[in-house]
Amino acid sequence: MNISNIKEEFPIFNNKIQNNDLVYLDSANSAQKPQVVIDRVYDFYSKEFSNVGRSVHYLAVAATNLYENTRSSVQKYINAKDKNEIVFTKGATEAINLVANTFGQKYLNKGDEVLITELEHHSNYVPWHFLRKSKKINIEFAEVNEDGEVTLQSIEKKINNKTKIIGITHLSNVTGAILPVKEIVSLAHSKGIPVLVDGCQGAPHLKLDMQDLDCDFYAISGHKMYGPTGIGILYAKKKWLEDLPPYQGGGGMIKEVKKQGISFGDLPNKYEAGTMATAQVIAFNESIKFLEKIGIENIQNHEKVIVDYAVETLKKNNSVELIANPKNRGGVISFTIKDIHPHDIATILDEDGVAIRAGHHCCQILHDKLGVPATARASIGVYNTKEDIDKLNSSINKCKKIFNL
Amino acid sequence: MNTKELYQQIILDHGKNPRNLRKTENFNKDAKGYNPLCGDKVHIYLKLNENKKVEDISFEGQGCAISMASASIMTDLIKGKEEFEVKEIVNDFLDMIKEKDKLNNNILGEDDKTKLMCLSGIKQYPMRVKCATLSWHTLTSAINNFKEEINTEDN
Description:
The structure holds 2 protein chains of 2 kinds. Chain A has 2 domains: 3-30 and 295-402, Aspartate Aminotransferase, domain 1 (Alpha-Beta Complex), CATH 3.90.1150.10; 38-292, 3-Layer(aba) Sandwich (Aspartate Aminotransferase, domain 2). Chain A has 13 helices and 17 strands.
């Protein structure tokens, strides 16, 4: 599959958005869907639908196989050791909540510390915050530097003998910084501390190898990987999934239920209570195949060209200020324009069909640190081109004109 | 309506140089407003005299051109009004932003009404309506003496 005309695979680009061609620069928020993924949802519901893992009729068996096929595809895609290390969730948020809840229940006590970073999305802070109240734990924040990075040293500085788990983003959804995850995991493990990686932004854009990365937990969002909404993945080392208590109780996750007591199911059922997002999980297999067909190396190379071009273009545009300058940057560029609030920028860009995000991007801790309440953010997906960046730049110039800058 | 028409000169002017952006000395009513979606914040200070007339009104905060202009224009034309008049103006403005195409109160003069109507274009941008209404909801809360922070997501 050729990346240069990949837009053709995404039907949304065939439509005019308020009479404009769509320039979609909001993939860090959610990515657009290729036709194969959309078709798979439709086909499954039209021809193959049944619940999985319960009934013995033909459709139930077929649906169960399809559902488990996605688990195998994900395992291969992220190079996990065991298929049962893949747990389906409703999103990355639920994946992180699952870890915070079960790990917290079993291993965190009064005075223990959870170490996260100032870059974290609210979804890798708020779940830990609940434990402040219920378990009286403390949360420490590794500092972000001037370039918008969190270094190995800034993590090391905050580790002490009370640190019980470390939660870090793989790729910041505001500064674009790619964290040295492998080095951080290695350092943490040398001190006996497990590491959870928020892979929401990493998974769609970087080559993933769980065995090489060696992290204990890795949370993935399906809809940011060109997949359906309502599906996420928790990768966790088998030893943790066997060791930690179940998260939600209900059908599907039990072995035996008696009035006197309950025993829980084996992996992966233990963590998949209730009817799961079956169609979405099955369609997500098409997202993985789609990414594999293009090739993650090709995606990385293409996105690097576009992001470098965007940085270069916006740096040349006076009155645009980039809010971070990480050495190792993924496809996220946040910026401000002096005297124009990001929401005004986003409204004016939208008029030209240029879709960006404005606000704090669910990272208020980081924005407090940066000293701005909001930023404008352009984020890159596999379908973006240099022409998209040129359109972004010319719409930014229109903002300046409207605001008499 | 396009963005060039939305961001007309009066909005840009009030957005860039907001009137009454300060803290009233000896204020006797105040309230804070917050829009969690965009991080806009406003703190309204009021000084009502013994006859329940607005002796002074001011605000502190940060936000987009629409929210700053809205707070600036609002504070400008609320000053000197009586409490019951303030309530009527606020309700009239919020009705206009929601559905009506003009202001119906008999308190404001035509010039003031024209200023306020400059904000009416925001109706075409549903995601931005809260930018224009945050300071008005916060003013209501200050008048009613609610101490809790107004959150646009509760409305």
